[in-house]
Write a structure and sequence with these properties.
elongated, 3-stranded parallel beta sheet, 257 residues, alpha+beta, 10 helices, 4-stranded antiparallel beta sheet, Rossmann fold, Alpha-Beta Plaits
């Protein structure tokens, strides 16, 4: 923060001009990087103590804060555990707790649940909701659309470094996507959609072996699919439109490097 000069315009963060007052701003923010950068030579407690020193927090004061941070991270009883013995989910929760040592008003999180199993991901989501309920502001980046849809009050979609849209999840879904989606797949899916599905949906998109049919009301489409014989080799999934549909419509379905 404050190491790179803006190409144009001005930057302010929490009322502080950046980079002029970057140090003051850093004291009021927390950072959760994409990759855990905990010190493997230290214990859980020592990682928190050392990080607190960067903010000028005295050892005695930091010692008093550690029990609450460990409870938040679900690491009670692990204070003297070496980092290399922790699971990936434990390390991620500790990295999140470490970002709270200075009681920040604003927390930046770079893909906070990348590489975690579903159970660990849900635990992180619960902790983030807890922080929001305390009045803290979270700014996170993610490629998991369900994560953005569950957590964000407001979001922005970026493509090739450019902002292409922003709004609440519900606003974006209503703005760009028909309310209902039918995913048609199976050996006979594409032929059936060409012959019948395109007449029953507003639009259809093919991705791999699945055809996505979008409609304001998909009842006619579903009725037609339900009437197919078992040997038609056509299966389907009927669901509501979601944020992933928005993202793929705006950025394309082509594989990105």
């Amino acid at each position: 923060l404050g190491l790179t000069e803006p190409d144009a315009g001005e930057i302010t963060l929490l009322g502080h001009a950046i980079p002029l007052a970057a140090r003051q701003a850093r004291l009021r923010i927390g950072i959760v990087p994409q990759m855990d950068n905990l010190d493997p030579d230290f214990t859980v407690r020592e990682n928190l103590l050392v990080y607190g020193r960067y903010f000028g927090i005295r050892k005695r004061e930091m010692e008093a804060r550690i029990p609450a941070l460990l409870e938040f991270a679900g690491l009670q009883g692990r204070a003297d555990t070496r980092i290399q013995t922790l699971s990936g989910g434990m390390k991620r929760r500790l990295t999140l707790a470490r970002a709270l040592v200075n009681d920040p008003e604003l927390i930046f999180l770079d893909e906070p649940t990348t590489g975690l199993d579903p159970q660990a991901r849900h635990v992180i989501w619960e902790r983030l909701r807890q922080l929001m309920s305390q009045g803290k502001t979270l700014l996170l980046t993610t490629h998991f659309m369900d994560e953005a849809e569950r957590l964000c009050h407001r979001l922005a979609i970026m493509d090739h470094g450019k902002l292409i849209t922003e709004g609440t999840p519900r606003e974006l879904i209503a703005r760009y996507i028909e309310p209902q989606v039918v995913e048609v797949y199976g050996d006979g899916a594409q032929d059936w959609v060409k012959a019948h599905g395109m007449q029953l949906a507003q639009r259809c998109e093919t991705s791999g072996e699945t055809v996505f049919c979008y409609a304001a009301d998909a009842s006619a489409l579903v009725h037609a699919l339900d009437g197919l014989p078992e040997d038609a080799k056509v299966l389907y999934l009927h669901r509501h439109a979601n944020l992933e549909d928005v993202f793929l419509k705006l950025t394309g379905r082509e594989l990105r490097d």
